Amino acid sequence: MPEKGSPVLDVRNLKTVFKTRGGEVHAVNDVSFSLAPGELLGVVGESGSGKSVTMMSLLGLLPMPPAEIRHGEVLFDGKDLLKTDAETLRAIRGGKIGFIFQDPMTSLNPVFTVGFQIMEPLREHMGMDRRQARARAAELLDLVGIPGAAGRLDDYPHQFSGGMRQRVMIAIALACDPRVLIADEPTTALDVTIQAQIIELMKELLAKLGMAVIWITHDLGVIAGIADRVVVMYGGQVVEHAPVKELFRNPRHPYTQALLRTVPSVRGERVHRLTVIEGQPPLLGQQPTSCPFRDRCAQAFEPCARANPARFDVGAGHDVACFLAQPAEAAHA
Questions:
Q1: Pick from 14, 28, 179, 329: most CB atoms within 10 A?
Q2: Is residue 14's pLDDT more than 90?
Q3: Within 13 A of 179's CA, how many CA atoms are on the CB side?
Q4: Is the pLDDT reported for residue 266 higher than 80?
Q5: What is the DSSP string of 247-302?
Q6: CA dist 33 → 54, 67, 190 (Å)
Q7: Cβ neighbours of residue 18 under 8 Å, at least 6 residues apart?
């Protein structure tokens, strides 16, 4: 067990590539972050920034090949998951680390009842018999706010609405009382009213259960209301990391600044026009040798073309991978 106060999850220099007929795709490039017990870490970035691939790499959920984890460490309770045997990793997945996938429409198996799908991890990881697992499954459905929970165990996924299916997915992820919960854009496929309900439900569950959470999203508005810290990803790497209030008050990376300008806001009676981030995300066919945001950045200057900037500590628990944040002599070195 790790020492008291140490991270429950510590990711160090993770690199994942995909081998394709057209060459290698460098999807995750030296990503590092940590997660403290009871903390909610937001991971944000546009589609293709590497958020989901990073999280699936942690738990061995990528098909290998074509995926390959080149290097890095993923320390969970002090044990490197990348060096763990398949049986131990399988016990950790769904047991000590829960995962809520993006789309509840496709993540639930349509030919099994929701009760069976909740009971499966309980019997596999917790050693419960069928009666115990069924009773616990009913408790979990009730916990996530499904009316008449015990009577819904024998229903199939198509008998639930989209929001209710997402609640079932949350129940499955929570079944074994995980220490870490990874939620991969859990509200993306839902309308805004149901999104708000799911977010409120998650906040209540986190306060009640006290687990550590990684919440993956492209929606900074969601992160502002629930996260303790934020990791901003672009081009398969972390470009900024800070406590949530610090990030919104003092964004230092031009990409983070641009993301914040795309968030709708109403000040007084004046509606501010949304901005767009011009250009396209970088191609990931080679290891980056310059700043990945350079071609879309209005503030780019000569050092940005020469090297890919390392993350630089700017104080207040805040670091940023940008030459603009570094002293002039360091940027031009």
A1: 28
A2: yes
A3: 11
A4: no
A5: HHHS--SHHHHHHHHTS--EETTEEPPP----S-PPP-SS---S-TTGGG-TT--H
A6: 11, 21, 29
A7: 24, 25, 27, 66, 67, 68
pLDDT at 173: 86
pTM of the model: 0.86
For 188, the enclosing helix (H) or strand (E) is none
Q: Which amino acid is at 150?
A: A
Residue 192 one-letter amino acid: V
Per the CB < 8 A criterion, the answer to whether 198 and 166 are in contact is yes
109: tokens are 């198996």
Q: Are 252 and 326 in contact (CB under 8 A)?
A: no
At 223, which helix (H) or strand (E)?
helix 220-226
Nearest residue to 5 via CA among 74, 78, 71: 78
167 vs 180: CA distance, rounded Å: 18
* pLDDT tens-place string over residues 46-96: 888 888 899 989 888 888 889 889 899 999 987 899 888 888 888 888 788
Asked whether the beta carbons of 10 and 3 are under 8 A apart, the reply is: no
The Cα–Cα gap between 110 and 93 comes to 22
Residue 241 has pLDDT above 80, yes or no: yes
Alpha helices in 36-160 (DSSP H): 51-58, 86-92, 104-107, 114-125, 130-143
